Amino acid sequence: MTDHATPPPAPANAPVPGKGADPVLEALAAPVAEPFAAAEDPATLAEQEARRTRRRKAAVRWSGAVLVFALAGTGSALAVTAPDRTDLPGLATASDGRYTFAPLTLPPLPAGQEAPDDKGKSPHHADLRYLLLPAPKEAGGSLTPPVFPAPTAAAPSGSPTASPSAPASPAPSDSASAGASASAAGSAFGQWVPCDAIADEQQDPVKMRSVLLEHACRAATVREWTASDGTRTQIRLLRFGSVRESWGAFADVRSKGGPKAAPSTKGTPHDDWDALDGSSLTLVESTTAGTKGAPTARVAYLSAADVVAVITMTNPAGVPTAPFRQVVTLQGELLG
């Protein structure tokens, strides 16, 4: 008979085969966790605090740098955009010769009178002397707009509005110039001159006097100046009794006349000019070129309702296009 070893008895708390472990026993057998973690090392805590301090300081430094750059950019933008372009070194546009004028101011009209329309069919009621373009800064003119006196319905009693049929002035060649010199750059208003004085400035005074007589020139006023570039400007305004008479004079003056200061002229196109509302324009220029290549004389004939303007600019070195165009345009705006 074979002896078999008898297995030792199972412990009382051993799980029964085929059955799940007793949860109570498992809980008792598990290691007990400590209720509170052990305190960290003081050196580690100090390092962590130093690291947080460095991060805060870095954030403050970067925020300050961003703020400084933002303020610097804003200041630079204001410094560039606030001043005029011409006041910034390196950005100033080279001058093309245009003049500096005071803001244009139209004179007041007599009570009950209206300004000319943009079709050029209604006459001017303002004092003709106040419709002259003032002298620019480059000729000693003031940049302050003139203060016009109260308007009156009648022309000034002392105005020499002699008709073309009156005898020629004692010093015909100097009549208009004398009036112009009296209305030099510093004067706000032009001077009255006889219509004959305008005729005497032409290459054929007899023919021009006949034209002004035929179309009944009522009054004339003049202004002259010489700018710092050496260009001489002469502006003559002639008033007629009606728009029809003025248009006839305009056609004859531009075709039959010619200032002594601008001999040997030819017509020149002006299609690219800005439109002058209520005005008609004819341009001629000298066939002689100056040292700068521009014509030595340029003349503009301008018709605006009952007024005809003759603008003559001369310069032995050549009259630049820009100031000539500027003067003619501004004078047209005052008359339009």
From TrEMBL:
Residues 150-181 have a biased composition (Low complexity). Residues 1-22, 104-124, 141-181 are annotated as: Disordered. The keyword Transmembrane helix applies. Residues 1-14 have a biased composition (Pro residues). This is Uncharacterized protein. It comes from Kitasatospora xanthocidica. Keywords: Membrane, Transmembrane, Transmembrane helix. The lineage of its organism: Bacteria, Bacillati, Actinomycetota, Actinomycetes, Kitasatosporales. It comes from the Bacteria. The chain crosses the membrane at residues 59-80.
